[in-house]
Every structure is written in C-alpha cells, then in structure tokens.
Amino acid sequence: MLFNSAQYGIFFVIVFTLHWLLPKPIRRTFLLVASFYFYASAIPQYLLLILGLTVFNYAMGLLIDRARGRMRKAALVAAIAGNLASLSYFKYSELIVSSIQPLLRALPLLGPLFHDPLILNILLPLGISFFTFEFSHYSAEVYKGLRPMRNPVDFALFAAFFPTQIAGPIKRFPDFMKQLQHPRTLREVDVDGAVGLILRGLVKKVLVADTLAPVVAAAFAKPEAQGWATAWFAVFAFATQIYCDFSGYTDIGRGCAELLGYVVPENFNRPYQAANPAEFWHRWHMSLSTWLRDYLFIPLGGSRVARPRIYLNLMITMALGGLWHGASWHFMVWGIFQGALLCGHRLWSATAANVQPYQRGHVAAGLRRLGVLPRRLDGWRACHVARDGRVLGARAGGVAPGATGDPRAAGGGRRAGGGRRLVLGSLQGADRAPDGSAGGVAVGWTPGLGKDRAGTAGALLGGDPAAGHLAAARSAALHLLSILAPAARGT
C-alpha cells in the first residue's frame, strides 16, 4: 500500500475519521490494529515477523532494566544481536551467499554441489531496516538508564506506527513515549501544516520523481549512447529523482502522523544546499545520520581518540551506513566514498584552523586542486583528453608518449604561475574523437582547471576550441553516469 496510491488515501481517511471519533483510551489500540493491517497489506506472513520482534524486544527491555552487572550488558548484546540477525537474514542473505559461492565452488569435494547459483528468494519485509534500528536504539537507551515501556500496546505502536513504516524517519522512543503519555486533541493538531506537508510530498513523489524515473532509467541503461547535454541532464535528474522520491514519502508520512496527533522528526532539510560533506549529512536522512552517530560512531570512540582513529571510525560508520541503504557491495563502496569525503573535510577543517588567516585561501586552493574537497559542481573541470589511446594531457612535467604539441598547452609542464601540476584521469574508451575515429576521450576531474585548457585540447583534436569543451563535458557526464548507474539500479 503505497502512500501515493488511491488505496492508501481511502485507508487513511477511514483511519483518521475513526481515530478522532473513538474514545481517547482506545485510540492507541485502534492505531496499532490499523498499523498491523497496513503492514500485512504488503506481505501478510511477515506480520508474524514484526509481532515476534516486538515481543522479543519488549521482553529484553524489561530484562535489561532489571539485570545488574555483567548480566545487564549481556542482555543488551543479546537484544541488539537478535535485531541485527533478523535484519541480516532477510536483507543480506542473498548478498552473503552470492559472495561466498565462488569460494565454495573451489572446494575439492563439495565444489560441484555449488556449481549452480544459489537463489534463496527471500522477500524483504517492509520497513525492516527502520524498525530493527528503532528496537536496537530502545535497548541501548534502556541500558543507559531510561525507564522501559511497560504498556505493551504503546511499545508495539512505537515500532509499527504506519506513517513511518515505508520511508522512516527513524523514531526515538523517549520522544514518542512522551506523546503517547500526553496525547493531543484534534484542536491542537496543525491541520493546515499537515495537509501542506502531504501535498508537498505528493508533488515531489508523483509530479517530479515518478516523471523523471523513466528518463533516468533510459539514460542509465545506455550511458554510452547519450550526448553531453543529455548525459548531464540524466546526472542532475537522478539526483533530483532520488531526493524527491525519498523526501516526498517522508513528507507524506510526517503529514499523516501530524493529522493523527503525533510529531515525527524531520528527515531532510534542503541537503543540496549544504556547503560541505559534513553539513550534507546534517541535512540528508537526518534521523539515520544521528542514529549512526549515537550508536555506532560514538561507541567506536567518536572524536575522543587520536586523529587516525577518528578517520577510521568515520570510514567504518559510513561504510556500514552505505550497506544499510541496500544489500549490494556498491552501496558499501558508496558509503566508503562518503566516509572519504567526511575525512577530507575534517582534515581540511583541522588544517585551516592551524594556519594564519592570510594563508587559508592558499590552503583551500591547494586542497581543491587535489580534489580533496570539491565544494561546487561548477568548480570541476575536465583536465585531459586522450585520442587513439594517447594522452594529450600532462604527466608531471612532461607529455604523454606519442602526444604532439606544446606540453604546457596540453596541460603539462609548467604553468604560467610556475610550478608543476600532476593531472589524474581515466580512459573512457566508449567515446570518439571529434573526427569520428574510434579511440577514447579520457576524462579526469580536477578543480580549478581553467577553460583555456579544455579549449586547447579541443584545438589539438580538431582545430575547434569548443570541441574540447563539449567532449570534456560529455565525457565527464558519462563518467558520473558510470559511477551512479549501479546505485540507480539498486534503488
């Protein structure tokens, strides 16, 4: 039952009406029944899963509260292990089996048994990534000293609350418990604001995300067939689609929760306006970011340890955060990339704090040239172009073998301002030179490289400076498409 479906619209109108007509003492029980119905509408048999985990975590919370000493910690470990085990089985079994199957095939006697692919056909339960994190957070907070929920209906509603089942946000039980203990009346509900959130979410999801989805899918299916303009459009369209899809669902859920008298945390706050990677993760999927900070990064040592250990903690946190988004290794690689950006930003911040004010501009420029902290997309420039396998850009102080022309004009050697420049890049063999010959246009990314370099490369390729700009832009966009395509297929 999708939030943007007519079925959900009818369901919510009925729930909203009955919720406010029923006597206050039974409203929470009614919401719990409605939430279980909503959950069972996706995969009915998995209602037993959320019921089982609810009973397990309710009992473990009471046990953690009563236990002392080592038994208390053992109960916490058992509660978290049970949640993570269920998440791992339902979400990551296929990934684990497909990863170890090549090793099993190499076994001397058992290898033939694993020749055919192992397909488990495990259907992913609705919202399991969210409510397992909520259960784990609950156990951790009880271990820290908060009183557990005694009312089983309230506890079950905490995890099963249907407006947050599909796309979060990840709720915190102290905040939700206060609202259960002090329910609001219909007069206290911000109806106008809630309806506005729902309408905004529908516009994001239906008019923007669903409209862009087929365009993005077609471009990512055959990136080599795209021109430079359509390739760049696909890159920006994908960024817009994934944001509007996710935040649109969250807005609808938050609006529905408000109409029922509950406030759930904001999850997105204009993330593409962030000035740096750290700020981005304070704006994007904020409930996940704070969960990872409180229950993974800080327990690993957080920022209270030596600097190399801080960077390691960041990388571990973001790698696992990437894997949380999807059961595929490219999601972990994406998380590692995000961790590297955060480490680069932290390194830059520490470096900038220790230099004289007049030096900070030079330090920032140097880091941007190395590509450590790209702040804006328009600060990146294509830095070298290859034709027929010969790099026309520069190496450190020279020209690639077989290249012709002035090495300084091609991007190597000494710049007008003095000093040498090391240019990094990779060949993209699917492109063609402007004259139509097969051979690659190699595009690397580096910030701050002026337009004259791309124009010079274009002149070397065909006598037209504009050709270099077009080839560089197209190849850069194709490079981004090749990076983003796995993520697009995995979402």
Topology record:
Elements: H1 6-21, H2 27-40, H3 47-66, H4 70-105, H5 128-144, H6 152-160, H7 173-181, H8 191-221, H9 228-259, H10 277-281, H11 286-297, H12 307-325, H13 329-353, H14 360-369, E1 380-382, E2 386-387, E3 390-391, E4 394-395, E5 398-399, E6 445-447, H15 451-462, H16 465-490
Antiparallel strand pairs: 1-6, 2-3, 4-5
Helix pairs in contact: 2-6, 3-4, 3-5, 3-6, 4-5, 8-9, 8-16, 9-16, 11-12, 12-13, 15-16
Could you explain the architecture of this structure?
The longest helix has 36 residues. The chain has 16 helices and six strands. It is mostly helical and 491 residues long. The protein starts with 5 loop residues before the first helix and ends with a helix. The strands form three sheets. Strands 1-6 form a two-stranded antiparallel sheet. It is globular, with a radius of gyration of 27 Å. Among the domains are: 177 residues, no CATH class; 110 residues, no CATH class. The C terminus is likely disordered.
